[in-house]
């Protein structure tokens, strides 16, 4: 059973948390931000909302978003991204290359790490830069 009553001193050091566990959290962070933005600014049916969301949260999209944001990463954030990118994966998405999949895992790891640190202001800053600079319709 999970013990949610641990004091901050009893919680795990985030440097000891698996990068894939951090990516597990980061995936949800990005998806929630994208869902929130779509609902706040667009009147779309649920099916259309989901189709639009995928344009931002797929491995291929996250790869492109990470490339856009990487120049903004601090050295510590870049280290966390690399840690997630280099985590071994046994499966790869059928809709993404191995490079895209690893980079998206690194990006999710970074977001999870920032979220668990409580650095929501930095997440918001990166998200706003992503939203302003990423064009889901553009093709590489």
TrEMBL record:
Query: Which InterPro entries does the UniProt entry name for this protein?
Result: Mini3_fam, RNase_III_dom, RNase_III_sf
Where is it found, in Gene Ontology cellular component terms?
Answer: cytoplasm
Q: Which residues form the active site?
A: 27
* Stretches assigned to the RNase III domain: 21-118
Q: What class of enzyme is it?
A: hydrolase
Please list the cofactors this protein needs. Mg(2+)
State the family named in the UniProt similarity comment for this chain: Belongs to the MrnC RNase family.
Protein name per its UniProtKB record: Mini-ribonuclease 3
Tell me the organism: Candidatus Faecalibacterium gallistercoris
